[in-house]
């Protein structure tokens, strides 16, 4: 086994030093009935490295991917450009194979990268502080609800129906085992009707959760909600799925969010069939000590030099155990390094270009839609819903597009079980070229 | 050389990266929402960005640069071929919602991994979804709770947790709407059967246990423990953080554990990445299988699919099918050992831990006698007499070229030092580490302790002031 | 441009500091008539990184490669297994982006790797010393001839006709502009007839160059040649193309070679359409100072610690100019790092397994050949020549095999213009599996 | 921490890597030739091997870790996307002798690159084959010689080489069966027209010149130089090592150069790799085109092919079509700049060199006045008065975090220091470097020179004894 450094004579010498005759003697404290016979497990044969590459290459070749197919898919996962530098940096063993930086003196690389990450995420979302990541957006949304309950000492959670159905489902699931109400507000449209949301707020409400841009790509004014939350003394939680938006449109922080959570997958992380992605968690300064997850902070060393450490750990499970703000331990450290590398390569200008191109591609497509396909109305960032005459028309189009190496969208009911099967959730990024849009429009002919 | 924080870079951003796409107009409706002030993300040229992050990387210790004997963290070598595997375009650049007939390859691999983890754990029904160990704990407890509810036992909400447990155990119970009762460990650091019996009652939902426990000792009473818990109408949750001691040698499911999470970033070598991403699949027995979360990966005929709805399921626990890239690496690790060699993981891991224990036991206090499994527990009791504490020993190890062991955990002994060498360390390295530990013990006995208190002196930074960081938190660079 | 760190205001400030108004003023010393108009060159449009990946991916997809096709191709380039670790190590910027280690204090990584490389290559070839690489095998062979002329102060070079035709052609070309005879000895068979070679030696001969295993894969006893060289006081130069052989069969050094040169591509370096590969150059200790190329040696630093430096540089062009042993400057440094990493992962046992599997695959195939296809006789390592009834039969087979994703061999005349077009040069490595051989044999049916 | 030489590893090789393939018998004939004693290649487990080479890498300076102002070496940033490009399986794992219809993609890219290099150099006919700059020189001289021979001028074998030239120039001439005559540079470091005329005669085959020259100065008389050489019936060979000063701004071919090699590992950013692999394509004008080596990459209709035979060709010079992986990277670099931006390479490179020259010229002796191109030349004349030499300045720079400049080259000045910043360095970095140089000059003037003589003190090793290494060479580890 190429991963095991011992020779048999090493093992023998070590056993002698320990004073036992055989390795199995070291397992004498496990009752004999539980010892399993060597080689008896129903696993595959041991594979050489070459065989492993062959096996996985064959499996990978069964999947269509974004190097051979055009993607108009969103819904929480986006095909944005990933610079080669990002992958190189996170492939370096010093980042890749490091543990959580509990020993700061020999972890300043990870820690400074986390600090830079937190700063950039706070700036991009317009929030005061960011933690050092959550698993992904759905669980981050659930944790935001829990945090709002801690902050407000109230328990009712109001969720807009235009939040990504997966974020809603996970949040509802997390809350279902705890005391307190959870209310989802039906929107009745492919957008966010804030009047309905505001109407659901009451005095027991801990927070209202909206998505911005919402699940359907809609962008709208959060000011009325901010006012309503102030009036009800509840927190305004803003979820987001494609953070690239905030290089173009006003940030959740500028619009008054108390907590903003979402996905950082757009920041240099491949789609990867859904993970590992990057959950983001940001909030106002005053709520900092109620945040879940790890946080990196600035300090000085014994020689007076600037340095970084994990901090506020008294919130965390390894110290506070059952009273911790969350049970989260391993989070998405390496993805933070990917995101900060990505953002450093992009800067304001690059991020803005990503957002402009993403939005412009959608606009270019929507503006030229034929009469038999309708797009949802109102301001959209890079995602919208197309409606077809019926599901047959839509599915004809999807099949034709797939044939032409183009994934034209996600059948809405695939994510939102309640949706009619004639709608299509579509997303564009800077990876969509003008020709792809032309092809898309041409293909729509079959949906007539 | 010092590397500035990105925000300190003196110059303005150069021309940005050249990006593809449609350089057209955005809609007038969207323009109305334009961001008013830029985010102030500093942009670097590619040469500068690379140099910045390469230099930062050089201030890190990683498993590729040196020994990492962190107890209960299983810092083993992370195979490089696994990094190639996950970067195959057909695995990296695929969307979870693209047509299922275009993702059969990845679904097949995940389905196979479910089967392997079921086989390894002795608990045949597996969800790959949980994003990390703690997440797996939550999901496992959800399933236990659902099973009890299905039996009409909604009153069972008490979770017994030994005082040696990871902090995630009680935290996960809380998150699952349950409450915990701490079991005091016996004199040997193991679960005390009498203590257990005292707390088992008809409100008990589960015992959460780690086996081997966090003192590195196997809970030899495991069969009796499980019997007692089951007899009381509760279930046994296994924390799989220490599975590296058992993999291929014995199976938690055979011992009576009902539900086990598996930290693939420990046992199956997926890289820790400076704090994740991890992966915490949960394996359960048949009784708990109906409650597995959705989506589930199923095979019908020759077709694999993600099944999103199931009435008995505890529901969705993540916005995705799982941390696929992490799981792929785990699958590749298991494939490399295969059925022929898998047991050698545990064998060499346990051999290494006992070797270290044996070399150090005369020089450091060993709180619990006997064989250890994949990790061994020492304390600073003998060094404290010389004014040297666990923290000093840990920091001195840094100057001697090693990452410290896990310190002050488990909480059941004073000044704990928990050492886990894993199967991928050579005898040379173990000897060098033991020599360093013995040097430190020598220094204590010789009264040569100043360098221990001042340590570390060699790395980029000396001891950092954690109190200052927590009192006046500065979490972002000021604008 | 993402590779240029200056902003326009940087440039302006720098120009002011220099005291000129515009960048073009810095080019005032170039006559105006030679200034070309910006953007006037007939190059492509500037491409984004994403567009570059797309462009090269499309081109790459037009090529069939070893992840989707079985290779029975050799002739100097071999599809051996390349461990992922090798690629990772040589991708690390500290190795990849370093210069030739002229400043040893900050180049000990490269230097120690080179020293380890030289040692391993010397051991594997059985020679006393190795240099730190040549470009590739053909030029290394030519340089061996030149070195033999320097050592012996004689000028005639005898070349066996069973040396790879490309090594022969380049050597002949190099020698053609210098005084002295160059003689190629026709072999009359797909192997090496040492009697003929020995017959060509005379008193003016500087060296005899043979290949072992030869171009046709033949392995033979070099003892008679060693004796003949001793008698004629000329050097015995042994070329090789797949160094993996020497983990299985006797090394050139053990058989008495004075100089052994060849390719190290088999040591962890991908085929890469022919390059970059790795030229190897080894010799006996007493000829060390006549070697071409860079050499790394052991020494101590000012503090008495062991360290490594480039040494024997007085042989080299930057010191000796027109009297240098060679004009070589840049060589294949990174490929040495690849090879030493590969060999460290393999060790004796792994290298031997590679060689055994490579040879066993050939044996398995040859032993089961149908009557209508003949293989060359005698001991072969992992390469041989198959002969078909006629070129039509051979080409039918090649076409059928290609169709079944199997490159069955190289038409011999493609490398050796003199060969009849009914022969096929085939090679096997450890990447050939038993199933591939079965398929190969099945496919031979069409050559009936 | 010290890292042992591989052969010092204490323990025996563990089980080797698991390899694919046919584990069958070898032929009895082959068995007769079995190796009698193993080669003694130490085998490491994968974790150990990775750690060994990662640690070694940490003792290297690279362009990714810091500034590398090596004059005439053009150490610029090496784009990471280019590393991805060459690793595409369809480019990495292809055999040069597989059927041509299965390699059209790579041939197309190479054909395109030939055209680009022809366009950039102003010399439209290009061979990509030469493996490095020196190899390109040889190939260029072969072509010049062939052209002269074709004119019946077999007596032209004299090559004129300025004394400032790279050592490869005369060495290449020797290898091509020609002899060199050294031209003494003029007082301004440039070619002296009178000296040139004195040596031009009907035995002269070529002038080899580098423009800008190795003092960083443009040979402004280039037109007259070429006229004189051509008038004498000889040809002008251009050493393209310094092409970075001209790329996109001016073309050697337009100036009268007949033949130019291009170091793609300099101008076009392919990584130096600790000493190669490089690439030295040669571009020539129409008169020399018939002599290009084989194989050539040609396009006929829509098909690309390698043409192996051509009567007028100088023949094959390498056993392969070229260093394809290196050339692909160069192609990607040119594509990134494209026609719109290519000139900015030379512009920023020349700006940076003049900026450094301007900042340092009051503190270091500048032997030749005026504008420099992409590199600037200083000497230690002023520091030598304080007992400090170029070598001391160079080694002190290491302690200050920089790789030294090129030292003692060109040979035409005493104590040369040749500084080339390239276009990929920021003003911040240039300023930090200049500040360090000024600190050194200050230290000399203040007589604070001990730290200069002792330098370097910070890196892993202090000054190494090169004399000892050369006197008693130890090139391999003893068995």
From TrEMBL, chains A, C:
GO terms for molecular function: glycine dehydrogenase (decarboxylating) activity. It comes from the Bacteria. Pfam families: GDC-P. Gene3D superfamilies: Aspartate Aminotransferase, domain 1, Type I PLP-dependent aspartate aminotransferase-like (Major domain). InterPro entries: GcvPA, GDC-P_N, PyrdxlP-dep_Trfase, PyrdxlP-dep_Trfase_major, PyrdxlP-dep_Trfase_small. Residues 1-443 form the Glycine cleavage system P-protein N-terminal domain. Keywords: Oxidoreductase. This is Aminomethyl-transferring glycine dehydrogenase subunit GcvPA. The lineage of its organism: Bacteria, Pseudomonadati, Pseudomonadota, Candidatius Mariprofundia, Mariprofundales.
